[in-house]
From TrEMBL, chain A:
The keyword Oxidoreductase applies. It comes from the Bacteria. Keywords: Oxidoreductase. It is an enzyme of class 1 (oxidoreductase). InterPro entries: Aromatic_CoA_ox/epox, Ferritin-like, Ferritin-like_SF, PaaA_PaaC. One of its GO terms (cellular component) is cytosol. GO terms for molecular function: phenylacetyl-CoA 1,2-epoxidase activity. The gene is paaA. This is 1,2-phenylacetyl-CoA epoxidase, subunit A. It holds the Pfam family PaaA_PaaC. Its EC number is 1.14.13.149.
UniProtKB/TrEMBL annotation, chain B:
It comes from the Bacteria. This is Uncharacterized protein.
Amino acid sequence: MSNADPIKTCHDLEREPEEFQTAVRKLVVSHAVNELYGAQVFDEPAIALAPTPYAKWLTCRVAMEEYGHHVRFRELGEELGVPAAEMTPEHKQPLSIFEFPLETWAQFCVIKLLADLAEILQVEDLAHCRFLPLRNLARMTMPEERFHAQFGKDFCTELCQTEEGRLEVQAAIDHYFPMLPPFFGRSRSKNNEIYLKYQIKQRSNDEMRADFMSRARTVVEDELGLKLPEVAATVN
Amino acid sequence: MRFDDDFDEEELPDPAEYPTLVAVARFTRLIPAVPWFAAVGETIGLQDRQEAESYCSALGFPGADVALVPDWHEAENVARNPDWNDSWWEQEEQLRVGLIADACEFLPEHELMTALTHVTSVASDHVHGAAAIAAQHGGIGDEALVRAAAGAATQACYQAALVLAAGADDEHCFAIKYRLFEAGRWPLGIIGSTFSLF
C-alpha cells in the first residue's frame, strides 16, 4: 500500500478493515496508559527531588502536561469506542521503561533527556499517520514533548557543571539507557508490520531504534560530553 | 449536580454526596476569572503586604521580611537560588499531608484525588497562557520560566482546593497564598528571613 487516502475521522475508520481499526486502538490505548503512568511514577515523585522552587514548579508543570497528553489520547480512545477504564495502568500493563526505581534528581533529568527523546521519535512518526485524528494529536503534543526533552538536557547540562553532578548523570545514563531500546518494540514485530501496512506508522521498529541511538549519542556524547553505553541494535 | 457546565467528566464525584466538594466545585469555576500574574513586579500595597505577612506567620515564619521582586529576571534568580530555605517547602508539604487526612474524613481518598486532578487540569489550562502574556509584557520569552510560573499557580490552586475539601478556614496559609495569586502576584518563597513577592 502506498500513499493511500488519509482517514479523516473516527467514523471513517469504521469503514476500514477490522485489523486497521484494532491496530489504531491498540496504539492509542498504549499512549494513553503510558503517558499517565509516566506522570505517576516519574514526574510527580520528581517534584520532591527537584533542588529549587524553580525546578519543582517546572516539574509540576511537566507532570501536568504529561497528564494532559494522557487525557487527549484517552479522549481519542473513547471516540474509537474504548472504555476509559481500559486506558489505565491498572487495566493494561505499562511499558518496562517505567520499572526503573526513581531515586535522584539526576535520574529524572536523564529520563526526561532520553525517554522523552524516544517519545519524540514515536510522535514524529505518528505526525505522518494515515489516520488524521491520531496525526493531529501527535502534532499537538509534539511541542510539549520537545520541551520535556529540552528540560532534561538543560538540567543535565546544569548538573554536569560539577564533577559530582557529572558522575551522577553518567551513572543514571549507564543505568537507564539500556532499558530504552526495547521501547521501540521487537525487531520482528507482528504489530509493527500491521502499523506499516496501514501507514499508521512510517518506519520499522529497528529503523526508529537506530535513529534513536544516533540522536541519543549526539546529545549525550557530543553535547553533554558523556559516554553512551553500548547496547544491541536489535531486540528479539 | 455537576462541577461545571463545560466539563463532562463522568467520573467526577458528586458534590451533593460530599458537602465539602460543593465549595471545591465553586472554587474551580472561578479559576478562569483570576487575573493571574497581572500585578507581578508592582509596588506592594498594604493589603498584599498584610497577606504576605500572614502567610509567613501561618507557615511558621513570623517576622519574615516581605521584599518586592521587581521583574521576571529577578524572579527567576530568586526561584533558582540554591540557598533557598527548603523548610518552607517542607512545612507546606506537611500541611498538605495533614489536609489530605482531614479531607478524607469527609470523602474517600479516590474521590478527593479525582476532584483535585480536575482542579489542576482546569488551572493548568488557564494559568499557562496568563503567565506567557505577563512574561511577554515583561519582555521575557523564556518558555521554561513561563512554565515554572504556571506550575506554581497550579500548585496553589491544588492547595487552596484542598483547604476547601478539608473544611479548613480561610486563614489557612494555603488560602492566604492563593489570595496572593488572586491579587495577580507570584509568591516566590523564603530565602534566609526574606519572603520574596513578585
